[in-house]
Structures are given as C-alpha cells and as structure tokens.
Specification:
The protein is α/β, with parallel strands linked by helices. Helices cover 44% and strands 16% of the residues. Strand 8, helix 9 and strand 9 form a beta-alpha-beta unit. Helix 6 runs parallel beside helix 7. The longest helix has 20 residues. The chain is elongated and about 90 Å long.
Length: 352
C-alpha cells in the first residue's frame, strides 16, 4: 500500500486506521499522519478503484492553460486521442493543469502528474509539450511515468534516449505552402504569424518557429533573399493586429503579391483586411492559410487554399503509442513526425 510505504508503517496498521477497525487503538500522532497522507493521495478514489474486480485503465490527457485559439488546436488532438483510447478499452481523463507558455515554474503541474500516476488514477499521460519546459518533461520521463508528447518539439533525455512523441512536421508545412506560392510565380511572399521573435526563449512557440524556418528554406532554395520586412506578427485573437500587419505590408514600396498566414484564422482576417483596402483575393493578392481548420475554411470567401495539418491523426497515434507503452509492446519508432499536405482551393492563383 502506497501510504504504508511512504510513512514507513506496516500495511496492517494503515488498514486498521483507514477502516476504523473496532478495538484497535493507535496514537493520535500515528492516526494523524496516516489520515494526512490519505488526503494527499486521494485515498477514497484509490480504494474505489481497487475495489473493482476488473480495474479500469485510465489514460491521462494533461491540458495546460492556453488562449482560445490554442485550445481549439489542441482539442482536435485530444478529442481524437480520447476516441482512440475508448476504442481500445482505456478511459481518457482530462486533467487541467496550471501551466502555460511563458511561465517558468511548472512545479505544481509536474507534482500533480506524479500524484495522479502514483495513485494510479491515470496509468500514463499524453502531454501537451507546448505547455511545459524541456526540464519538466525530462523529469517526468526519467521518473518512469509513461508519457507521450504532442504539440511541440521532440526531446531526448541526457542519456540519449528518445522521449516518445507524435508531432507535426511544421518545417515541411512552412516549406510546402511557400513552394506552392513560388510555383505560381510569386516572388514577394509575406508571412503573417503569431508573435514569435518577441517571446523570450525557451517560450517561443515551436510550431511558429518551424513554419518560419520552412518559409525561409523554400525562399533560399528558389534563389531568393529573405526580406525581414515581409514577416509580420499578428494575433488571431485581436483582428486589429491583423489589419495593422496587412496595412503595413501593402504600404511597402514593393508590396507582396502573396500572403502566407501562419494559421487559417489569420488568413481569413487577412482577406478581410485586403478587401477593406479595395484589393481582391486572389486577383490582386493571393492568400493561403495553415492547418485546414474547418470553422475558418467555412467562413472564407473565396475558398481558402491552405496546408492541412493532421491533428486528428496526431491524437490517434499518440493514444496508440501510449497504450503500446502501457501494454509493454515494442514501439516501431519512439518519435513519429506527421506530414502536412497542400489543399489548393480558390484564394491563390498565378501571378498575372
């Protein structure tokens, strides 16, 4: 019994105190220590679980604090993970943790994950890497807790072992979108994305950084010089920042003929901003997005060309990988990177 192990007491002593066995007397100090530890370990939940003849198997999905757009992104991953878990007779449990990009102290969230694992309220975790520092995930992996990372950079431990992860190849996605515009004859290609360079390391959003690197690589491969003036920050939660970014870009002496937005919500807002300036899409400016997010795609006029990001496959593969770990099955690969794909619709066309 975990309580007995932690306190250095016999299991019978702990059992008598917790079950209030008639005739058994213990000091108030011993009783207090046991009850305090039972509260810490959520003993009632543990006892209920162990009373079931066929114990339920639980997968924890660790969700950190995020803005509305980020939650929408990760929810697609986690919803798919939940469906896959249920199909395999594992029960997904969502754990909201006090984390968040830009917060240097995640000790409370890490402690909560350790507690949930030690009490077997969750047998393993799918962890949103974007909400944790590498040191946090390293601590969890080295403690023996089964985890699979999603939504962020893959990681290795100090001894070279890979931490299981299923991620998106956003570098390839950035290059794919830029190459599409280059093939249409565009040479002045702007990139509008969430704030990245202004965030201090290590809190830079990994996906945005990889998108920018892919964009840069495609331009270099085409023999073009990257113009920093064509890279703009904007926040999809504040459309005014998108309008300001578009207005600045279009006021350049040599304005872009195409805009690659770092997500579909930004792309739709960019189309609105261009329309307000009297510019038509794609006749005057081509616009493309990133993710293939259904709500934004449905709102886009014209139909939005974008890069499809396989978020549901990300979640499904993460759940499958974690279950393999829990069932001691060998993994074909410890870190799986999924490829985005180009979806051509009506918002891009050849330079005319």
């Amino acid at each position: 019994m975990e309580i007995a192990r932690r306190l250095g007491l016999s299991q019978s002593t702990v059992a008598h105190v917790l079950n209030q066995t008639p005739g058994m007397k213990f000091s108030e100090q011993t009783r207090g220590r046991i009850m305090s530890m039972a509260d810490r370990l959520d003993y009632q939940a543990v006892r209920l679980r162990h009373s079931i003849k066929s114990p339920l198997r639980h997968i924890g999905i660790a969700v950190g604090e995020a803005d509305e757009r980020s939650r929408t992104y990760t929810n697609q991953i986690f919803n798919a993970a939940s469906r896959e878990a249920l199909e395999r007779r594992y029960y997904p449990v969502m754990h909201s943790l006090p984390t968040g990009v830009g917060k240097p102290d995640h000790s409370a969230a890490v402690a909560r994950i350790v507690e949930l694992y030690e009490t077997r309220l969750s047998d393993g975790f799918i962890l949103d890497k974007a909400c944790f520092l590498s040191a946090d995930t390293r601590q969890l992996a080295e403690s023996g807790i089964p985890i699979v990372l999603v939504h962020g950079s893959p990681q290795r431990l100090d001894d070279g072992r890979e931490v299981p992860a299923v991620t998106i190849d956003d570098f390839r996605g950035g290059r794919l979108g830029t190459e599409h515009l280059l093939e249409l004859g565009h040479r002045r290609i702007a990139m509008i994305c969430r704030p990245y360079w202004r965030l201090p390391s290590p809190f830079r959003v990994y996906a945005v950084g990889q998108l920018l690197l892919g964009y840069t690589a495609a331009l270099h491969e085409a023999g073009l010089t990257v113009d920093p003036g064509l890279i703009a920050d904007a926040d999809p939660a504040d459309k005014q920042t998108v309008y300001e970014a578009v207005n600045r870009l279009m006021a350049l002496k040599q304005p872009p003929t195409a805009i690659f937005a770092g997500d579909d919500a930004l792309a739709v807002m960019a189309i609105h901003a261009l329309n307000r300036r009297g510019l038509g899409v794609p006749w005057d400016v081509s616009v493309m997005g990133y993710e293939d997010w259904a709500p934004a795609v449905q709102l886009s006029e014209p139909a939005l060309t974008t890069v499809h990001v396989p978020l549901e496959e990300n979640g499904r593969q993460a759940a499958a990988m974690l279950i393999q770990l829990l069932e001691k099955s060998p993994l074909a690969q410890m870190q799986l990177k999924l490829d985005p794909s180009l979806i051509v619709r009506e918002s891009t066309q050849a330079v005319g």
